[in-house]
Write a structure and sequence with these properties.
Layout (H helix, E strand, L loop, with lengths): L8 E3 L8 H7 L9 H18 L4 E6 L2 H12 L5 E5 L3 H12 L3 E5 L10 H9 L5 E7 L1 E2 L4 E2 L2 H10 L5 E5 L18 E5 L10 E6 L1 H6 L12 H4 L2 E2 L2 E2 L7 H17 L1 H23 L5 E2 L11 E5 L6 H12 L1 E5 L8 E5 L6 H17 L8 H11 L2
Parallel strand pairs: 1-15, 3-4, 3-5, 5-8, 8-9
Antiparallel strand pairs: 2-10, 6-7, 9-10, 11-12, 13-14, 14-16, 15-16
Helix pairs in contact: 1-9, 2-9, 9-10, 10-12, 10-13, 11-12, 12-13
This protein binds pyridoxal-5'-phosphate.
């Protein structure tokens, strides 16, 4: 392939664009990671992660992708054969459930259509029926990246509290953290599962967990095998020193320090509002394309459509992967593909992380241009609708 001019428009839902400030923060020599200089970096990172997770609980960081934090959530708190409830939201809830099964848990899936918001009443019913209180954890993906839908963690937390059920609430916030409001303590979340490469604007490579006191307590009786991800091995200051399981990925920590500073400088509420605006501009464009039987919004519950990623349902008879393959090879626009049962049926526009108006407009204009070029029927005026919305809001 000949050289692609310009920068790639990275509109997959993670990894996201890494800001120059973050890249530059990594452009430095390696250092002895067992020194106060580096402990300070880690301490600042953990303090700022706690602000973003909105928790006073413990913060754990590992050299891993988000899968590591999934694993840590289960192995630190559960014992072989424990029952966990998995709210079905899409490919990521399915995949987290597969992981839980693989480590020896009994996973009960609360089935749900992928294009619908998960109904918290389903959790209430399951917990009420659990007379012996055997359910160890309720697991939910806050923002299901495979479908572009956000699910009501706050309501699920309220239900667990109101029923006074001992289950832990475990929430995957991998594609919502620092893009949408997430309130770990207020919502009663016991384990928040996060990763570095989405809203936090960092390279992939850091798994992150927020852990409540109740979840820390659960480690005392949990007997699933664990070592690398053992929270008690890495949790706290020991004689003023921070511990890390193995050699700390110091450059990723320098990146994280900068990324977190940037988010807090912008202000979390502003970050969330920016995501909401860019998402709404995207939705308006997709709605216009969908008029007269064109590609349309995948999610059917308007109020649950995600502010970090929009899944677009391709027309029958057209392959979404062919569409995005051409968008990438011809125009250097990277879009996300449909996962598992949605493969070829949807494409996904990621609008999270370090993104501004020209970037999303460039993406939407290129999608529209590719729809025309590839002869995919669609309604006119998608970009106009996005421009009009952005022009009238600030
Ligand atoms: N959960 C969600 C919601 C995700 O979007 C992803 C990745 O896209 C994962 C889990 C898995 O994270 P990782 O790919 O970093 O292991």
């Amino acid at each position: 392939m000949s050289r692609q001019p310009g920068r790639q428009f990275l509109n997959i839902p993670g990894p996201t664009n890494i800001p120059d400030r973050v890249l530059q923060a990594m452009h430095r020599p390696a250092l002895d990671f067992m020194t106060p200089e580096f402990w300070e970096v880690q301490v600042e990172c953990k303090e700022n992660l706690a602000k973003i997770l909105k928790t006073e609980g413990e913060i754990m960081v590992y050299a891993s992708s988000g899968h590591g934090s999934w694993d840590a959530a289960m192995t630190n708190t559960c014992s072989p054969g424990d029952t966990v409830l998995m709210c079905e939201t899409g490919r990521f809830s399915e995949s987290w459930g597969e992981m839980a099964e693989a480590v020896g848990l009994d996973v009960v899936t609360l089935a749900n259509d992928w294009d619908r918001a998960f109904d918290p009443a389903r959790v209430e019913q399951a917990l009420r029926e659990d007379k012996e209180r055997k359910i160890r954890a309720v697991c939910v993906v806050h923002n299901e990246t495979s479908t572009g839908m956000t699910h009501d963690v706050e309501a699920i937390g309220r239900i667990i509290r109101e029923l006074d059920h001992p289950a832990l609430l475990m929430v995957d916030t991998i594609s919502s953290l620092a893009s949408m409001d997430f309130r770990m303590d207020e919502w009663g979340v016991d384990v928040a599962v996060a990763g570095s490469q989405k809203g936090l604007m960092l390279p992939v490579g850091l798994g992150i967990s927020g852990v409540s006191e109740k979840a820390m307590k659960a480690t005392e009786t949990a007997t699933l095998p664990r070592k690398y991800f053992d929270w008690n091995g890495i949790k706290a200051l020991e004689n003023g020193r921070l511990r890390f399981a193995g050699t700390a990925p110091s450059h990723l920590f320098f990146a994280m320090r900068e990324g977190l500073r940037m988010l807090l400088e912008e202000g979390l509420d502003h970050v969330f509002a920016r995501h909401a605006r860019l998402a709404e501009a995207t939705r308006r464009a997709v709605k216009a394309w969908g008029r007269g039987n064109g590609p349309s919004l995948f999610g059917r519950d308007e109020g649950a459509l995600s502010n970090s990623v929009t899944a677009v349902r391709m027309l029958d008879g057209f392959d979404a992967d062919v569409f995005r393959g051409k968008a990438l090879s011809e125009t250097n626009l990277a879009l996300g593909g449909g996962l598992a049962r949605l493969s070829g049926k949807v494409f996904r526009i990621g609008h999270l992380g370090d993104l501004n108006e020209p970037m999303i407009l460039g993406c939407l204009a290129t999608v529209e241009m590719q729809l025309k070029r590839q002869g995919i029927p669609h309604g006119e005026g998608g970009v106009d609708a996005a421009v009009a919305y952005l022009a009238e809001t600030r």
